[in-house]
Amino acid sequence: xxxxxxxxxxxxFITMLLVVAGLVMVFSASAVVAQERFHSPxxxxxxxxxxxxxxxxxxxxxxxxxxxxxxxxxxxxxxVCATTLLLVMVYFFPGSHNTHRWIRFGGQFxxxxxxxxxxVLVLFLAWFLSTRLDAMKSWKHTLGPAMLMPLIFIVxxxxxxxxxxxxxxxxxxxxxxxxxxxxxxxxxxxxxVALPVLAGLLIWVPWRLQRMLVFxxxxxxxxxAGGAGYHVCQSLIAVGTGGLTGRGYMEGMQKLFxxxxxxxxxxxxxxxxxxxxxxxxxxxxxxxxxxxxxxRAGFRSKDPFAxxxxxxxxxxxxxxxxxxxxxxxxxxxxxxxxxxxISSGGTSVLITLASIGIxxxxxxxxx
Length: 367
Prior knowledge:
By secondary structure, the protein is mostly helical. The chain has one domain (9-363). It is 66% helix and 2% strand. It has twelve helices and two strands. It has a two-stranded antiparallel ribbon with strand order 1-2. A hairpin with a 3-residue loop joins strand 1 and strand 2. Helix 1 (9-38) packs antiparallel against helix 12, helix 3 (73-89) runs parallel beside helix 5 and helix 4 (113-130) runs parallel beside helix 12. The protein is globular and about 55 Å long. 44% of the residues are buried.
């Protein structure tokens, strides 16, 4: 079969729709708060637009760089070391909201290394596993070494603390190992080992335990601002009042200092309130379509490295979207994680667009 002439236009078009939807909804969710804090309703939108432009530039550059250039020990070693260093550096910068997730430059510019860790982890696993597809049962030569770097990333991210992103990293690792040919029994063994650790992280950390208790016994009538269940209760109110078609764009009420993080972690709640079930399901449909096109590029690629890279990038985006939407709908306990390409967050949109640039390059080489 002949190779494609150009990139996957559907994947590119879906990405652009999500980016535009993100800018539109960031403005709606942040305009009132921005006016109050910065005396301009466009403050958050302008900042997000700058990151989108940078992300689009990265997408177009990476879209034209052959993915085979990343398949070398020197390149992988360099980016893994740089990312590890950045993940350690966050502890030397002032924290925010009792976390250390950002490297700060001046008063305005921040960078979140845990976002970079996702594509770097994908590239590392794709490089390492692509030459060991026939030895997936070997703990000494394949499974042990393959798990070392993900564990380092996961531990550093958990210590920030950022359990949501750590779970995304763990999920991407498990999926890539499975798609590389790892048998179910090994994955189940890994899950059995990981569950007690996860339980400990949830139970022995007081504020996580409080969130778990709220999750299993949510009583929104009793929640006040600052309470453990306040975020999710306000989120459910926003989703519930949206109905089928929503209140109308810019007409949402919960973003008016009721729903915290309405332009970041809980922007999907604002979408559901203003655009209703129809708008919310459209966003979900776009992510599903992006996942289908990304997986299609992976399955049709003949190069093992490119195939695993496509699987990993697509899985990372979908897992993050799944966790974010699940938190908004109270399907999982509350955790701070953005909705890719939609939420306000410079590092997230930059890294996600750059990753999709790599995915688009892979789509050029499929049959």
